[in-house]
UniProtKB/TrEMBL annotation:
EC number: 2.7.7.65, 3.1.4.52
Location of the EAL domain: 211-465
GGDEF domain mapped to chain residues: 69-202
Keywords: Hydrolase, Nucleotidyltransferase, Transferase
PROSITE patterns, per database record: EAL, GGDEF
One MF term in the entry's GO annotations: cyclic-guanylate-specific phosphodiesterase activity
Family annotation (SUPFAM superfamilies): EAL domain-like (SSF141868), Nucleotide cyclase (SSF55073)
InterPro entries: Biofilm_reg_signaling (IPR052155), EAL_dom (IPR001633), EAL_sf (IPR035919), GGDEF_dom (IPR000160), Nucleotide_cyclase (IPR029787), Rev_trsase/Diguanyl_cyclase (IPR043128)
Name used for this protein in its record: Bifunctional diguanylate cyclase/phosphodiesterase
Native species: Clostridium tanneri
């Protein structure tokens, strides 16, 4: 099936080339082809991305079902990758990932598939598994290949890896379930130490000690009011004006200092505590918006990140409506940011909820565009006002012509659909100039400001009124 996908993909590309000169609508086709690549392949390593990897698992599960066969999913997590980024910078980190992506295939048998699943996470799909022994031999081979000194920018880094394994049909019946369970097994392997591998066991999905203590801490933090919202400005490129801010949560823990959201939001999403957090954020942002409306006749828009979980909750809309009534925040100054995965999970329900939010006057922004799997054409179905291009595309836009072309395509197509575009993670003037040239509407990033406390924004707002 995968071969079929590539054959069809190849045929489509040839067809597009053949008629390049003849067909007037060719530009649109080229952009769609580029988007196909963005949607299914990791742009850094050229490997299948999570979506294509999942599709491959799906196909092989279907075949295994027919033949009563077995397949295995290996979930690899590279230890110490962050250190490379921290010490040598992102370019060195990127180069290491590309080298690794080139080297790993030599460990793999025929018809196995390698994909990049996350920043430093890779997946391997073994389509025909005859014995457990065979899987373990592959794990040993991978560990031997990765666990050595890697020379990165003239420094040696000893890299290690942990591997989680899920086997069809024992550990899951669907692609998603298998990948999730391989991921859970990987965490277990990681807890044992470096260079371990672990098969999935049902007990693994019950929470580990670490998670339980994290859960308790989050509950305490809510009660002790340890959460705080920071705000990062969004700037309109044409006139350099701050037109909005994104609310970003921080946890001020008396024990551990400031904890960034990446460290607790995923846990909170797993155990349902995200509901409390999202509601607290919504209310705090509405109160802040109300205050800024009082201070300034023309306040600025606040964007709020909403977890995909809220789109499964029928009470979410009621909560938003009540909060807006209670706080008297003007909905026109609110924007909700949702991720592509939230859109895709329950598209029909999500469209309904988004339409209700829009009917209240709230704007909708699609976050982290490019990291998920929606195509722009598909987005037509959703009432989206704005699209935020993920920072991974912006990071090397000045050196990487391909990324520049992708960003241009996203901007051009979005504009043709009446959707505004914001670029995230803008850190340099050079990046800003390219985005200006490409007609991007707004930018957000350290070049202008890191996320700051509300009071800092407030002072700037008051300054704006007085001037
Ligand atoms: P996000 O929505 O993509 O937020 C943007 C992240 O990029 C923020 O990280 C921000 O500090 C960071 N960032 C901003 N400018 C730059 C830049 O120029 N360069 C780089 N390298 N990074 C930049 P943060 O605050 O750690 O948030 C991480 C993620 O946590 C957010 O990603 C969002 O998915 C989630 N999150 C944050 N606050 C909330 C919240 O209130 N509710 C929910 N549900 N999720 C939240
Ligand atoms: Ca966001
Ligand atoms: Ca984002």
């Amino acid at each position: 099936m995968l071969i079929l996908v590539f054959v069809i993909g190849g045929a489509v590309m040839l067809w597009i080339l053949k008629y390049k000169v003849l067909l007037p609508g060719i530009k649109q086709k080229q952009t769609e082809e580029k988007l196909y690549h963005v949607v299914y392949f990791d742009q850094l390593t050229g490997l299948p991305n999570r979506l294509l990897f999942l599709k491959c698992i799906e196909d092989f599960v279907a075949t295994a079902k027919e033949n009563s066969g077995s397949i295995a999913i290996l979930y690899l997590d590279i230890n110490r990758f962050k250190i490379i980024n921290d010490i040598e910078g992102y370019d060195a980190g990127d180069k290491f990932l590309r080298d690794l992506a080139e080297e790993l295939p030599s460990c793999l048998g025929e018809s196995m598939i390698l994909g990049r699943l996350g920043e430093d996470e890779f997946g391997i799909l073994m389509p025909k598994v005859k014995s457990e022994e065979e899987v373990l031999q592959l794990c040993d081979k991978i560990i031997a290949a990765i666990n050595r000194d890697w020379k990165i920018s003239n420094r040696n880094f000893n890299i290690a890896v942990c591997i989680g394994i899920a086997v069809y049909p024992q550990h899951g019946e669907t692609a998603l379930e298998l990948l999730k369970n391989a991921d859970a097994a990987m965490y277990y392997a990681k807890e044992r130490g470096k260079n371990y591998y672990e098969f999935y066991k049902p007990a693994l999905s019950s929470r580990t000690l670490n998670q339980v203590s994290m859960e308790n801490s989050i509950i305490k933090a809510i009660n002790r009011e340890e959460f705080i919202l920071y705000y990062q400005s969004q700037i309109r490129i044409v006139d350099n004006k701050v037109v909005g801010v994104e609310a970003l949560i921080r946890w001020h823990s008396p024990e551990h200092g400031i904890i960034p959201p990446d460290k607790f939001i995923p846990f909170a999403e797993e155990n349902g505590l995200i509901d409390f957090i999202d509601r607290w954020v919504m209310k705090t942002a509405c109160l802040q918006s109300r205050r800024w409306q009082e201070l300034n006749k023309k306040p600025i828009r606040i964007s709020i990140n909403v977890s995909s979980k809220q789109f499964e909750d029928p009470k979410f809309i009621e909560y938003v409506r009540n909060t807006i009534d209670e706080t008297k925040a003007g909905p026109a100054w609110l924007e909700v940011e949702i991720t592509e995965s939230a859109l895709m999970k329950y598209p029909e329900e999500t469209i309904k909820i988004l339409n209700e939010l829009k009917s209240m006057g709230i704007k909708i922004a699609l976050d982290d565009f490019g990291t998920g799997y929606s195509s722009l054409a598909y987005l037509k179905k959703f009432p989206i006002d704005k699209l935020k291009i993920d920072k991974s595309f912006i990071r090397d836009i000045t050196q990487n012509k391909e990324n520049e072309a992708i960003v241009k395509t996203i901007i051009d197509l979005s504009k043709s659909m009446g959707i505004k575009v914001v670029a995230e993670g803008v850190e340099t003037k050079e990046q800003l100039e390219i985005l200006r040239k490409l007609n991007c509407d707004e930018v957000q990033g350290y070049l202008f400001s890191k996320p700051v406390e509300g009071i800092v924004i407030e002072e700037a707002l008051i300054g704006r009124v007085e001037n």
